[in-house]
Amino acid sequence: MEKFLKYSLVALMAVSIGMVVWAVATTPDNPTVETATAVGANLYWGYGLFAAAIVAAVLGACRDLLVKPEGIKGAIFSLVAIVAIVVIAYVVANGHDYQIVDLQNQGYFERGDTVITDACILVFYVAMAGAIVAAIYSAVSDALK
Q: Which of 37, 16, 14 minimizes the C-alpha distance to 27?
């Protein structure tokens, strides 16, 4: 099974590199139908990879919980923490009164779009801060051992 996964990942990487090269090679100064096709295909490829990654992560987590049921407590705590962060970010973003300029339509984006965008940015900030704290904690704990 490990060989299959290893070769599958190499194949997916090769296809991804090929897709990017195709998109870059067909992007001239003047956009054409071929350029739109290349960029659209790359977007759909990225969406597919993202969906596959989500499915693999969820299935892997479920398999681990079935193998080691003592991890359910930590999984539930993590899920509650993620939901709390998203809800708090949405509430904070909903309290802001931003108007983001829409240059294409010579106006402003609708309120719902700006709230979702602001909430996503806040969740990203919290995730990055958590990653930095985890990296520092890991380095310090390894140094103290």
A: 37
d(CA 96, CA 63): 41
Residue ranges of domains in the chain = 1-67, 70-145
| 23 and 42 Cβ atoms separated by less than 8 Å | yes
Q: What's the distance, CA 29 to chain centroid? A: 30
Provide φ and ψ at 15, rounded to 5°: -65, -40
Tokens 């139908």 correspond to what residue? 33
Two structure tokens written together for 66: 């079935």
Question: Could you tell me if 85 and 126 are in contact, meaning their C-beta atoms sit under 8 angstroms apart?
Answer: yes
pLDDT tens digit sequence for 63-77 = 888 888 887 888 888
- pLDDT, tens only, 87-128: 999 999 888 777 777 788 888 878 777 888 889 999 999 999
Q: Which two tokens stand for residue 135?
A: 């990296």
- Identify the bridge partners of residue 102 per DSSP, sorted by sequence position: 107
Strands 101-102 and 107-108: antiparallel
Looking up tokens 């993620």, which residue turns up? 82
